[in-house]
């Protein structure tokens, strides 16, 4: 296997091209590639001839040498030198031989390479470095310098080939590995494709295989990440798109481009809109397209398509030579100045760079002129389309989108790179047909831009008029709902009658309305099921004493104005080991005051009492919150076990009443947390009936609070903790960083991330070394915590080791992107990773909050996205109290039954009661009055 210059050069452009060239795969041809090769050969021949002619009369030259011999070579310059070693071969354009300047010095050889372009690329320098490398291998001596001759006027650039030798060795090693493989490398489309002889072949293969590489703008890193997830085609990628809401804090930031949404648009062959395309043209639209020679920084054709009312005016400003460029620029400025409120519209960055370059070259127009204002406010349509309008075409190129909109170019193969060939052909031959082709191509680009702009405006109007439902080829992403492939769902029928037929097929409808008409057994079952519960026997009757004074004015002139009334309250009697239904009947009379004419009962509290007692409500809430049972399950359990007739709405009302009752308790917990010395923070998402939101968890060692917000933005939490002076323990979410207080980041989160990186990159030695050093730092600290607890007196001694670790971190050699990212992350969070070493009682992880999040996650699973914001807030109030009771060692059911709304007050009562019980058990009455503080 011999690597030639042609194979090496093709690898620099594309590994697949290198493989195809080496295996002699026939190309499909490319006019630009052919023109470029001929131009380079012509420039090379002319340059070599000048090199040989530059030799003095007494300096011999040579041409077409098969090999270089150090001892026998007497020439000054040699051309077309075929140099070959064991595995490498190069046809060097020219070599300069420099004889030794004194004893002990060796002859120097400098390879020459001729490139016709005015601008050199990195690949051009690598080519002369490859020539020097092959020459060095053949001569068995170092070749430290090479020269690249390029452009008009001719310019010589000296290249330090010795510095590039390591790069050449790596590249040749990769080429050898590539060519020794029988299978071809992955097909990757890139910028070189437009000038490659295999362009048609590769694009056809990519379309047949539905390759991801067809999507313009997708980087190799993004493609590799998708491949590692098993996604190899555009169709596969299209199924990964999920519509997401744009956060308010990012409203001013442009939406990023979603390749998955582009893939979805291609699969469905529909235009997909993200938000609303903001395109307002309030003046005279001027569609601008410019043709130029990038290698020469020369703009030779300016196309203007002006729309005035319903008429179209096309201008084509042509420059024969570089000297005419100034003239067509001034013509352009004059045309724009004569328009009323001109709006310059272009596509892509080429025209933007043109306007900037012309202003720098020939001076800016007066600020008051129409042209200066139009140039300053020029509109790039691509910036409107990007990330907002997804056409069902692989790229956002003007030609792809305009063809989708129905436009056709006069020349099928027309492209920017082919226009360079046409212009160069015209410059050498002055064939009028070439000039006409360029002008027509430029005019076609202006027309295409006009059509695309009109399409965007129509899309915007149709969206504002809410007509998307009538347009089959337009999809508004904001109206898309996330599709779940599995699970129960309601069917939406286009024909209303089909919905009626579907409703008649439900199980309960057929069982209760259809089957019972022909099945007597089912009829008896249904009738039995519909029977109401028997009346509840009364366990206790309470006669309320008559009232002698008015509750409103205090007058004793009251008299009974109604017969005896009664109210039955159903409750539960809860003992240490049993629960029993208990119905109490209250017997009372209604009275009227002769003084103020107010009507009242023996006790007004009786009128406000619910049909159900406090113990029953407490037990229902206990099952719902503490035991995480759905409300419908709680309702069925109470009805079945205690013979009640509760509805699901009634049980839900218990929760609503409790939310109102315990709201002050909830607020007091928030106040205690904000005044404390430690807060653990975390957050989690929740789905609601309409939309979704986030629940934030704030905990200390004894209090827990759950807070709902509509978004994950940290505005509410930041305002809540703006005066907090304690230590905040959290994960690495950026919303916590702006809170002005000492912070401790969870080391467990960091350790898990490091471990994931180690699994993904098992051969990254630098990453392993960094991870091991971090482990050696943290492990002794954790051992100290296990031995002495979280006391800064014992933890302070580790601060010097922490500082030494970060001092060594900056000088550590890390060769991979993953290792560098980890180092940057550690250095960025240096001040918040080991805060716990400087405080008493501050944990090094966020497990306290994560534990509280688990309780919410269990409740969220029960809610299952079927709740409103108001109902969720009631849930969170009760869950906050339930978890706080657990953290304080209080039984949640006992607290609900007590009627207290202050947890610490209830805790004091409980501890006093325990002290009293203990005193009685030990026959020590003197211990009964002991003061207990929680």
Explain what you see.
This protein has 934 residues and is an alpha/beta fold. It has seven domains: 5-179, Alpha-Beta Complex (Lambda Exonuclease, Chain A), CATH 3.90.320; 284-467, Nucleotidyltransferase, domain 5 (2-Layer Sandwich), CATH 3.30.420; 497-530, no CATH class; 540-609, no CATH class; 616-743 and 847-901, no CATH class; 747-838, no CATH class; 904-934. Helix content is 45%, strand content 16%. The protein is built from 35 helices and 25 strands. The strands form six sheets. A six-stranded mixed sheet has the order 1-2-3-4-5-6, with helices on both faces. A hairpin with a 4-residue loop joins strand 21 and strand 22 (692-699). It is elongated. The protein starts with a helix and ends in a 13-residue tail after the last helix.
What is the CATH-assigned architecture of the largest domain?
2-Layer Sandwich
Q: Report helical residue fraction.
A: 40-55%
Q: What is the CATH first-level class name of the largest domain?
A: Alpha Beta
Q: Which structural class should the secondary elements be placed in?
A: alpha/beta
Low-confidence stretches: 927-934
**Count of all domains:** 7
Q: Assign an overall shape.
A: elongated
Number of strands: 25
Radius of gyration: 42 Å
Largest sheet: 6 strands, mixed
The tally of helices reads 35
Q: Would you give the CATH topology of the largest domain?
A: Nucleotidyltransferase, domain 5
Spatial separation of the terminal alpha carbons: 84 Å
| Proportion of residues in extended strands | 15-25%
Strand order of the largest sheet: 1-2-3-4-5-6
